[in-house]
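Hi there, hope your week has been kind to you so far. Thanks so much in advance, here it is.
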Amino acid sequence: MPTQVCQSFQRRLTTAVREIDIAGQTLKIHELGDVYDSLTGRAFTGSWIWDSALLLSRWLATSQFDLRDKSVIELGAGAGLPGLTAALLGASRVVLTDIAPLLPGLVKNVEANELEHRVEVRELVWGSEESLSRIGELRRFDVVLLSDVFFDLEEMAALGRTLKKVSGNKTRVLAASEVRCWTGECLNELVSQGFKVVEVPIQEDGGDSGRDIFAVYNIIPPDEEECQKNIPCS
């Protein structure tokens, strides 16, 4: 592993709490360096904040997109920054979802920001009907948030199935990502499932180095494309 990557990895593992300024308020985010995959021994990458999560949170806070009184679900929430941002910006109910090992960290971040009254944490494995059934009565959401999820082509079919399950009439699916060599392949897999992908204009990129390229996408589910063109849907 290159020295620069090793140093970055070690920095992430030793980070404790980050304070993120959002719309004049501060979110406290615990980045956990002690959450490991029991099979591989590797740290779960979702236990810290990635630049794309920062980008999506800042976009939500500075765009004209209105989150007030909206129901929101974040898929692959990791540390939960975009979902917590949605709660801070007035969403009526937010569900943060991820795999089981990352849930304690999400709960910790919800409690650290005193958002228990409108944010809940649930396990959700993409593509799993059993996991989706645990979401309860809120299976359809006004807004779906994703950040840095386009990294494993083999996961895209399951992600697509999950997006279709949690999306309803006029659901807005917003995804922020660093643009890597495989990002296009992942997005094309969603397109092959009937989704439409539209890049959203942004004011900034999220990279610390200034060399990385980031994007925010509006991912329109197959049955909702006409709704998002302001054509009435039943």
Summary: The first helix runs from residue 3 to 14. The longest strand covers residues 167-178. The CA atoms of residues 126 and 155 lie 8 Å apart. The beta strands are 17-22, 25-30, 71-74, 93-98, 119-123, 141-147, 167-178, 196-200, 214-220.
